[in-house]
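User: Hey, quick favor. My workstation is busy. Could you predict this chain's structure for me?
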Amino acid sequence: WFMVAMVDVLERMDEQLYNEYRGIMAQLRQTIEDVHKFQDEETGMFWQVMDHPGVEGNYLETSGTALFAYAVLKGVRLGYLPKRMAAWAEKAFYGTCDRYLSKNPDGSLQLDGICLVAGLGGKDHRDGSLAYYFSEPVVCNDAKGVGPLVLAYTEMIARK
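Assistant: No problem, here it is.
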């Protein structure tokens, strides 16, 4: 969500906020570079807990991957990010579709691999441990995954 917010804020910023604009631009580029280092080479997706790939209970997660794809594709389209980064986003988009997007017998689409919710805070709740993150339900067709994938798709269409 943070990467998406930076791209969206940059798009709306007034030119009078030049220093702030440049600061967010630099932070966006660095964040994308840093997050990309955790992109799964085979699928292009991101693990639920990014720095623990392949650990039992961890899985390739849809919503975060789709948010990355959208933020990068939009950032490239608007000229905020180098064009070379688009390949990372396309790999994330197609990896998500290949792994988790399917067609039901009635012809409707289903998107799987979405973490229902994850956060931090509260006494004895959401402690940030691996056990906590791995215990959160994985669901299908949740708006937190479908919405970002649709946004990424709109950016994929805009590239054509």
